[in-house]
Amino acid sequence: MSNALIQIIVFVGVTALIGLVTYLHCRGKGHSTSTENKEYFLAGGGLAWYFVAGSITLTNLSTDQLVGMNGQQMGLLALWEFAAVVGLFILAKVFLPVYYKFKCTTTTELLEMRYQNRNIRAVISIMFFLGSALIFCPAVIYSGSLFMQTMFDVDIPLMYIAITFAAVGAMYAIFGGLRAVAVSDTYSGVLLLGMAVLVVVLALNAIDYDFTGIPKERLTLIGGNDSPVPWHTLLTGMIFIQMFYWGTNQVITQRAMAAPSLKEAQKGVFAAAGIRIIIVPAIIVIPGIVSYKLYGDVGDSAYGLIVGDLLPAWLSGIFAAAMAAAVLTTFNSNLNSATALYVCDIHEAYINDKPNVAKLSGWVTVALTLLSLALVPVYAQAESIIDLLQQLYGLLSMPILSIFVVGLVFKNVHANAGIFAVIFGVILYGLLSFEFSPVHAPFGLHYIHLMFITLISCVSVALLVNKVYFKQKAELSWAANDPAPAES
Description:
Elements: H1 3-26, H2 37-42, H3 49-60, H4 63-72, H5 78-101, H6 107-115, H7 118-152, H8 158-206, H9 237-247, H10 250-256, H11 262-278, H12 280-295, H13 302-310, H14 313-350, H15 357-379, H16 385-409, E1 410-411, H17 415-433, H18 447-468, E2 475-476
Antiparallel strand pairs: 1-2
């Protein structure tokens, strides 16, 4: 039996097993005909802490991380993961108590309650929705397809692989809702983390644990001014990037909002933080560094090359199944969260307040899937997928975070002042960060510093417009101290 056939048989078998176990676990616990938002988008509040941890971990850890970060072929990228631990603690201790107190289905629902205005909720939802539709969904489909193509060295067009991933991921999101997504995330996550650790061990063994010949700038954790992560960015924008991603981003936070209680949710988040600090940094940088010694500067192809060369055929089939599961779960997590934002924040607020949730979600998911596939060729032109993701999402992240910060810390701020500040922030960050702008990177500042400047500017503008134009005085009032909303 040829190696290729062994790989395919193992790949199909493991993938089918994950699907079967997920089906058996979810059978009878909510289904695709549900008309309830809480059931379809928050699994009926029934996710145990280990499913919260597993889903958070695998939703974040996919090919855009493994391929993109290893593609940088340097240790500095581990700083993102260490900083992420801080972001997860902020989610557990700062944001989750507020989301649970206000019984939110979407993170943006909190904004409507704090600002007493549904339009601000809709504006931020649209921004999150566009982020998933135009950035994360197509990026994860592209990076997953590239990995499979590189690892198996197959002469199959990238788009064919992308179409397969998109179709299967959409089916998970349509027919299973968040419960199926979270359960499959967890089972797949155990497999993926185990295989990724094995790749680290095999990679180190391939060079006899000898890092000589690798430039020191690829091994250090202290980045210089011209590195992807200068050390001083840890003191400005890095922490706020993590605060935004883990604390306000519907794709991630939705999992933590689906536990039966705040305490159970926090346990899941802390477990995810433990995984991130113990396992994740090694698996997203060491194979890339080793590949530099073995192959030279090969960019985003590094991870697929080293996995394809070091794993025996039967193990590479299992690893391919784990990676495929990571791609699918990250993709369908983005689909499910984007759909939740549209259904709960846009459609029910402005079009029909009692839709068939499952049917409407299905149509939205199909539309998002087709759009993602259309954008795959755009991402294929990127020099570095991880750098492109960070720069593009910077347009949204700090402006959105600013409106959460103002809403959490102050009351008596007019919603339109917040909306104005968000639009201002998108324009400001675009002018500061994109090369075609006449004010691109003033004083040579790194884009993470520019994110910090954008955040401070947006908060200041919101408060200034609120006072000068709307004649309202913002008052310090921490959201967690507000009374809980009355039962409807």
